[in-house]
Every structure is written in C-alpha cells, then in structure tokens.
Amino acid sequence: MRVAPSRRVLAGYVVYEEDEPIVSHPRDPFHRVDILSSTRHVRIELEDELLAESSRTYMVFETGLPVRL
C-alpha cells in the first residue's frame, strides 16, 4: 500500500481518533469539551415560573468557558 506524501510528513504528529476521515479542518488539540453526569439538583425559573427541573443533570466543561449544566 502506498502512503500519500502528506501522511508521511505528518507521521507522528497526527492521531486519527475515528475510523471516518475528517472532511473539514482537524480538531483543535488545545480546545477540549467534556460532558459528565451529575446528581446536582437544578431548577430553572423565569419570573417565578418553573421552566425546567432535574436531578439528573449533565455538566459541560469547555476550555475557556464557565461550567454549564
């Protein structure tokens, strides 16, 4: 099997995480998004009206942004 010249140049620098080829630009290795489940009880209200409530929330941790629930 012949390896494309661009792959030879990038050998050791690029890690393929998926079996599917990347069609757009590669992911930024310095930007991370993690989603973790939590048992934290969350209520969302607007002007005393309950919009959402859950004790099975997900916490989103993203580089450079505050934690979101």
Provide a descriptive summary of the structure in words.
This protein has 69 residues and is mainly beta. 9% of the residues lie in helices and 33% in strands. Strands 1-4 form a two-stranded antiparallel ribbon. Strands 2-3 form a two-stranded antiparallel sheet. The longest helix is centred in the N-terminal third of the chain and has 6 residues, at 5-10. The radius of gyration is 20 Å and the shape is elongated. The protein starts with a helix and ends in a 7-residue tail after the last strand.
Q: Give the oligomeric state of the chains in this entry, treating copies of one chain as homo and distinct chains as hetero.
A: single chain
Category by helix and strand content: mainly beta
Model regions low in confidence, pLDDT < 50 over at least 5 residues: none
Work out the helicity level: under 10%
Largest sheet: 2 strands, antiparallel
Strand order of the largest sheet: 1-4
Strand content: 25-35%
The number of strands is 4
SSE arrangement:
Elements: H1 5-10, E1 33-38, E2 42-46, E3 49-54, E4 57-62
Features:
69 residues; mainly beta; two-stranded antiparallel sheet; 9% helix
What's the gist of this structure?
It is built from one helix and four strands, in the order H-E-E-E-E.
